[in-house]
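wait is this the right file?? whatever heres the structure
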């Protein structure tokens, strides 16, 4: 038992359900990683949807982002020194004035307990104009609200999910970010995002981490140890990418996202999307 002071980041996060921004990447790093993403999109056009889930299992450079010391230091201030990576997930909005995310809670579809902490990492400007994330502070302390799903292709979410209960969106806070900044949010906080109204892409990478003590209520998924020690073994161990989109990487990714799809699409009438190992859409 120690009497170490609680980091201010953790205090603010536990109170509000969000925290940031925190600068973690410099301008050169942002340029490099955005270049790697756009090179990947050119080289593997049929695999662009796959990096919406566990991209660090397909791309060594995404694995490098997940292991970046400043990113892990920022997470450690909130969840402690023993850290599992659940997913690295690109959320790119083209300047189409359509793509959005309805108000939702990730905890409605993820059975991880007690917590999963997400951080939006900006690889481009992510302001209100670009459709940055917005959260309703304090809602992480409330219940999981009723959601409905939709096949709306303009939704950036896997199930097109949105909350059906009445919400006080006047209290919402925009998590506007400059390139290289992180903003943290609790997986139970109500959040969403508006369309991108700018002339550039909004490139955001969701960094999803949890303490090694986290567990699943039922089923069994996978994760990757990033820092510290896993004394619990609640999750299968993910394989880090060594070759971009290599044969072994594709096989390991498919196995991992298939486990996740069983949880995420449980009870859904929608088809499992390509990002979660489902078949590609027909032309």
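ok assuming it is, sequence goes like this
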């Amino acid at each position: 038992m120690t009497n170490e002071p609680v980091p201010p980041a953790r205090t603010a996060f536990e109170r509000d359900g969000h925290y940031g921004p925190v600068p973690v990447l410099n301008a050169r790093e942002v340029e490099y990683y955005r270049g790697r993403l756009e090179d990947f999109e050119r080289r593997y056009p049929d695999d662009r949807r796959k990096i919406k889930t566990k991209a660090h299992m397909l791309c060594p450079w995404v694995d490098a982002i997940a292991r970046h010391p400043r990113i892990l230091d920022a997470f450690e201030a909130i969840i402690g020194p023993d850290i599992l990576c659940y997913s690295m997930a690109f959320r790119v909005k083209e300047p189409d004035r359509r793509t959005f995310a309805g108000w939702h809670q990730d905890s409605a579809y993820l059975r991880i307990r007690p917590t999963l902490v997400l951080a939006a990492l900006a690889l481009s400007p992510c302001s209100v104009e670009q459709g940055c994330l917005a959260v309703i502070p304090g809602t992480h302390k409330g219940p999981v609200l009723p959601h409905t799903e939709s096949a709306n292709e303009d939704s950036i979410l896997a199930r097109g999910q949105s909350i059906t209960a009445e919400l006080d969106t006047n209290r919402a806070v925009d998590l506007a970010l400059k390139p290289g900044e992180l903003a943290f949010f609790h997986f139970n906080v109500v959040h969403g995002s508006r369309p991108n109204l700018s002339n550039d892409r909004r490139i955001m990478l969701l960094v999803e981490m949890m303490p090694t003590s986290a567990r699943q209520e039922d089923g069994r998924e996978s994760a990757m140890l990033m820092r510290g020690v896993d004394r619990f073994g609640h999750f299968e161990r993910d394989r880090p990418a060594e070759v971009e989109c290599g044969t072994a990487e594709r096989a390991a990714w498919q196995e991992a996202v298939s486990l996740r799809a069983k949880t995420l699409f449980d009870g859904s009438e929608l088809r499992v999307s390509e990002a979660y190992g489902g078949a590609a859409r027909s032309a």
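Residues 10 and 78 are 4 Å apart (CA to CA). so i think its the right one actually
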